[in-house]
Design goal:
This protein has one domain: Aminopeptidase (3-Layer(aba) Sandwich), CATH 3.40.630.30. With 122 residues, it is of the alpha+beta class. It starts with 14 loop residues before the first strand and ends with a strand. Helix content is 17%, strand content 29%.
Length: 122
């Protein structure tokens, strides 16, 4: 299911931001949004007009503010691109949950089956 977030990248609505290590030029963080169809939804699917968000920061670079900056820029980019909201799915045990809540994501739906909660940012 994770490959859904990036396979066939470049569809309408696909937007990504990448953070590079200035010295090594390695990718250390990435955040992206993508639209999905009701017939082929993602974990965080709300509707066909709400992009689903994903973010990843390499372990050794976490807790340094990189994820916060990346997500703040993604939120601005999504708004500039004309979307009124975006969604994400997160395991309630994921330590990044506090980051999402701190940046204004609100609970939309909780699923017991897959143990994920869906957060929505307006």
């Amino acid at each position: 299911m994770v490959s859904k977030a990036y396979e066939k990248w470049g569809r309408d609505g696909d937007t990504a931001l990448v953070v590079l290590n200035n010295e090594t030029k390695e990718i250390i963080g990435v955040a992206w949004v993508r639209l999905f169809k009701k017939s082929d939804p993602s974990y965080g699917f709300i509707d066909e007009n709400t992009p689903d968000m994903a973010i990843a920061v390499k372990t050794e670079y976490r807790n340094k503010g990189i994820g916060t900056k990346l997500l703040k820029k993604l939120i601005i980019t999504v708004k500039i691109n004309g979307f009124l909201r975006m969604s994400l799915s997160v395991d309630p045990r994921n330590s990044a949950l506090h980051l999402y809540k701190r940046l204004g994501f609100k609970l939309f739906k909780a699923e017991r089956d897959d143990n994920h909660i869906y957060l929505l940012k307006f």
